[in-house]
Amino acid sequence: RAMHAVIDRQKNHGMHFRVLAKALRMSGGDHIHAGTVVGKLEGERDITLGFVDLLRDDFIEKDRSRGIYFTQDWVSLPGVLPVASGGIHVWHMPALTEIFGDDSVLQFGGGTLGHPWGNAPGAVANRVALEACVQARNEGRDLAREGNEIIRQASKWSPEL
């Protein structure tokens, strides 16, 4: 994440993140911080979703609103896992599940270590929140609208949450 400040965050020099992501994928990289949308790190939702698709999907249709300026067929080139981190915690889980889906890395630093009961209960809380959101999504529930209620319901059977 720290390299982004030097390479692709500056408006007057460097390269765009889209170029960096493609270069990483073509060189066999396995993961990269793709932005988070929620938490403390900035990022527009549609553009971040475009980056996530660019990293993972085999075929990406042109969609200027998401920063995809031409159709890209990656054929059989393996994808790259998008990583989200930076101020994320259990209450962000519905949005993270909706934005990143199943094939991603969610790094909960302070969201785990800052749990009032300690690190292990913090990890349990994150896992329970993730499983509750994935189950709700798979049942067809609207994570954007019902996310907080899904977390509250899960906390009834998981005191760590």
UniProtKB/TrEMBL annotation:
Every Ribulose bisphosphate carboxylase large subunit C-terminal domain range: 1-161
Pfam families: RuBisCO_large
Record's keyword annotation contains Chloroplast: yes
Keyword set, alphabetical order: Chloroplast, Plastid
GO molecular function: magnesium ion binding; ribulose-bisphosphate carboxylase activity
SUPFAM superfamilies in the cross-refs: RuBisCo, C-terminal domain
PANTHER family: RIBULOSE BISPHOSPHATE CARBOXYLASE, RIBULOSE BISPHOSPHATE CARBOXYLASE LARGE CHAIN
Name of the protein: Ribulose-1,5-bisphosphate carboxylase/oxygenase large subunit
Organism in which the protein naturally occurs: Leptolaena multiflora
Recorded name of the encoding gene: rbcL
